[in-house]
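An example makes the point: we print one protein in full, the chain in one-letter code, the fold tokenised, without further comment:
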Amino acid sequence: MKTLHLVHASNGGPVSTVKMMAITSTWMGESSCWRTLSGPSRLQLMGCRSPTIRAVLEGKQKQSSSSSLLLFSNALYIQQRAIGPRQYAPKGFREAAGRAPMTFEFGEECNDLAKVAHQTKNYGDAISLYDRALTMRREKYGPIHVKCAATLHNIGRVFLDMREPGAAENALTEAAAIYEEVEGKQSLRYAESLALLALAYTHLNFLKEAEKAFRESIKIFRDVSYNHAANSWLPDNANTTAAAAALTEPQKHPLASAAHALADCAQLFLLQKEEHRAIAFLEEALEIRRFLYSRHNKYRPIIAQTLNKLCEVKKTINDATGAEMCINECLDICIATLGRDAPATAQATSSKAALLAARRQFREARRLYESSCQIYAKALGQDSVLYGMELVKLGRIEELCEAYITAQKTYERGIEILRAALGPQAPQLAEAYTFLASLLIKRQELDRGIQLLHDAVRLRKASNPKDPQLAFLYHKLGDAYAVRRESHAEAYFLLAIEQFRMNATIEPLQRTFLTDVLDDLGLLYLDFHHYTKAERCLREALNIRIEMLGETHATVAYSYSNFALLHLHREEVTECEKMCNLALDMYTKTARSNVLAQADVYTTYGQCCHLQKRYREAIEWHEKALNIRRTRGETCETATAESFNHIARVYISMKQYAQATRYLAEAKKIAFQFTAAFAQYLRQEVTKTEQQIPPMEEWTAEERAASASILSTPPMLTETNTKKEEESIEMPPSDDEMHTTTTKI
């Protein structure tokens, strides 16, 4: 392989190096970018201004040197470079440019064509055309000129859109250096290039360099364009009609670049977990964009885009009111400017649905998710990734609306689309697998649910071995194995605890999720009678809650309830009763008390009274728990059967076997509605109770006489202040739903 070095005629310096393979491929017909020429005359038509060629054309009589000049002319033409990613095939622009003479005027036309190619997302053509324009501008103006800097700035923008921040960094660094040299450090164009360079640094994960560049860029914008007297980016006459009429091309206003820099810097702050600074910068960008674009329908979607981003950030800091105001305005703008069937409208609709779901307005959120799914399907097709991801969100909200069969079908359809579009190893499938697994476990399909959770763990580990979401997956796996009373649930709980501790080093609030895992592990130890280990876990959970949430919080009452259960297992009735009273007292003090958790305390208190042979009190506490579980929860859930079973045992101790048989029948009916794997422990407890009831022949005459009427009527709800409890106690989300509202639905 030989290399041909070309020398510029004016200064003797090297211009470029080309491989002889380019000539060979041209002659063999392998490339449409290079072609042979027919001599110096053709080179002159193409705009070649070499003194050597002009001398040849003036001396036509020297025919003997024509063959050597032909080779030289071919080499001169081959020096034109084709720069840009090779994976982009020409789509018309580059091919047309290759057939035109390479003059300075055509270089300017290439610059205009490149802008069109960029707008139509023909990025490969745009880079090639910008490179031709840059070559001609450097030849005419020299390498240090504002027009060369402008072309380099545009090349950087194209590379950013192509997701090639490394190439963008090179072009933007040179553009910023030229602007700084020619126009000075207070140049707005220097600030624009510096802001884009900072964005490239952000994509390259050079966060310190990005922050430094953003700081310098925004400082220039503030020094030049900020209205310091009014403490605003807007001019004094911003609200006048004359100012609005003057904004015929708002995208070219200097404030437009300032808004871009502020919005991009907000993205950097989000990567640094500084949400409040991001909100401040986004609100400044929104103020500018409202001033520039509010009267131009072509650019109003930029306002909607800023509002949507602001809504997402405000959701992360639990500012539901501010987020709702932003998304409502965003949705109105999208409908007015883009129409109801635009993907941007679907995105805004989805964001509003997520807000409603966080406020537990599940049915209204479901309606909006159905609308966004229809829009995505119509605009992008039913095989698009966005449509598949939206189906997963719809399935989640259908699950929260207790439409389990519909939710499972929606999940499976969304997963099928994502798998077909992205492949079976796509990280986006992990979240969908997690949601579907939770639903399957709830529907007692434990084996399939556990397998999906393992798949989700595998995908997240492949993407990021330290993914924070792994902690939640380990917790769910531990819960699933604990349902079947399998001892290796402990291993997954310990993995979850370790991962949550790692997460807490970055985000301290993760320690609140750690307490849930500690509670579940402690309760697992109770089932296996490891009381010392259980106490250690429950103690750590209580200490973390008091430290982070204070002593008067509903979750502190939950810890007291777990300690009461621990003392009950140890038959320490005095301590058990004390903890029950502490838990109930704390639930009454907290504004958002969980009545289902209170029912657990009532059950523990009833068992404590049963151990002390205070049978009437025990029945009262168990009936209070039963009333809550039947009215607040599902009438057929396992907790209701547990209450029936406990009441039956108290009646057995009182030797009222007819009443015990009636309650036991209800417990047995519920227990055998579930699969054996799901309700194995409950079935064992019901069987133990059944074995404690003697045959009817051993009953007293009074019991046998009363048994006919008692057994014919099922147990009804008692009148133990059920209405008062329902009026005075507000129902909060369950633990699972609370996790759901803190993450993406």
